[in-house]
TrEMBL record:
Species of the source: Nonomuraea turkmeniaca
Record-linked Pfam families: T2SSF
Residue intervals passing through the bilayer: 178-195, 202-226
Coiled coil: none
Domain Type II secretion system protein GspF residues, every copy: 68-191
Protein name per Swiss-Prot or TrEMBL: Pilus assembly protein TadB
Membrane topology: Multi-pass membrane protein
InterPro entries: T2SS_GspF_dom (IPR018076)
Main location: membrane
GO annotations of cellular component type: plasma membrane
Key words, A-Z: Cell membrane, Membrane, Transmembrane, Transmembrane helix
Amino acid sequence: MDSALVVAALSTACAVWLWTGPTTATTRLAKLTSGHHKPQWRSLRRLFTRQSPARRAQSWRLASIELCQALSAELSAGRTPGEALTRAIAAVDLPDPDALRPVVAAARDGGDVSAALTASAPPQGGEGLRQLAACWDVSVTVGAGLAALVERVAGTLRAAQAHRQDVAAQLAGPRTTARMLAALPALGLLMAAALNMHPMTFLLGSLPGFACLATGITLDACGLWWTNRMAARAQG
């Protein structure tokens, strides 16, 4: 009975840890309220912090908005486009600062900034960088005001981000329900163990029991994966 309780409790704890971890918004709020950190601590934190592809894409989208806002402010202050972009990149806390080093080099040396931005943009979450590259290309080719173009891109990115947050809020209920349903089998094991029914003896001590356990875990994991996949597709 004790071993069954321990196994069921560990299963429940793992499910809760995997599916109720801190969101990107919570992480960014903690950064804002915790003050400035030394660069070496930021590097260590990025080294040991692993993000899912969806959260990494979200981090890049937020960083792109901040980059456009910072670039617009630098341009409004009268700085040249290359200097403004360099200062803006240095001021933004990027998910991967090394990814934009070619952009900084192109801005300082008078290279093709638009191509560098396009090449540095990640496949997921790099929409803002690609739009910024298009703005830079238009500004260089046609001579349009870069500050106005960047501000318009920033407004578009903010509107898209607000829409994604609204969709995420609407999907919070279904996601919570799916997680609760996924945890019910573990709760059932706890209840059965409390009634001295010895469920783990059957599940781990016989071939039919082990087959039932493997099938249940597989179906539970597939249900969680499918729910998360549908929610991710709805968020775009």
